[in-house]
Specification:
The complex is a heterodimer of chains A (139) and B (140). By secondary structure, chain A is of the alpha+beta class. Helix content of chain A is 33%, strand content 27%. In chain A, β2 and β3 form a beta hairpin. Chain B is an alpha+beta fold and 140 residues long. In chain B, 32% of the residues lie in helices and 29% in strands. In chain B, the strands form two sheets. A five-stranded antiparallel β-sheet of chain B has the order 1-2-3-7-6. Chain B is globular, with a radius of gyration of 14 Å. The chains are: A alpha+beta (139), B alpha+beta (140). At the A-B interface, β1, α1 and α2 of A face β1 and α1 of B.
Amino acid sequence: MPDIELALPARAENIAIVRHAFGALGEAYEVNEQMLSDLRLAVTEACTNVVVHAYPDGREGPLEVQATLSGERLTVIVRDEGEGITPRPDSPGLGLGLPLIASLADTVQLGRDEEGRTEVRMGFSLHRWNGSEPAGARP
Amino acid sequence: METNSAVLRVKVGPLAGPLLTRVVAMMLARAECPVDRLDDAMVICDALAAHASEHTQDGQVEFTVLTQTGRMELRVGSLAAEGARRLADATALPGVGNVLEPIADDVRIEASPHGDNDELVLELDFLQAPDRGRAGAPQA
């Protein structure tokens, strides 16, 4: 069972909502600021990809974000119901989104879920920057 | 009129309150909500998140936030049988009473559109300054 599931229309303004929502991890748990910053940036990039690429021609579709905390490991999945991740010669971006995600997350998998939705699955170690201090609930 | 929606499903625990308040605050900011009503919304979110854990059916609570300019509807679902009523009652404070009803413009219990147990529904209007002696809310 995921700890967080957030579904919104895939619009530019809603990327900020997802980014802000993930700041809640820092309120609820002892997460290193650098780690949280990396996490939020990676999630923001994945959501931006959905908004920019998933639904061409002004079509609107869902942007879904799911996060599951398991011990010191956080898995974040960003999903859409778009056409999948394919090379796009006319891309309005610089093409740096996925490489940036790959450099920020410990693991990245691109693919489709069992319902055929496109997903970017990112894994983060919550105390990557914390030395031996575990990520526990704040008192 | 700009509309937006978000469905937040969260496991009960320390994340519920911070997540709900952050999502609602961002959505209200885009719906031109004045600061005093934003503060009211945060009180509602804190109260719901604090007590929802006692009334869920599977350890998760689902918040559906619908906004348009001047208005927000917040639905609390995935509750146990009678959970909506009990959650509303649980927000009562000694000597103060129910904190939802004086703040929200409407508090009601509705059947879930998904066929689950009843949902607690709250509405907040903020385009017209209500008769609460509030300052800062723009007139329609």
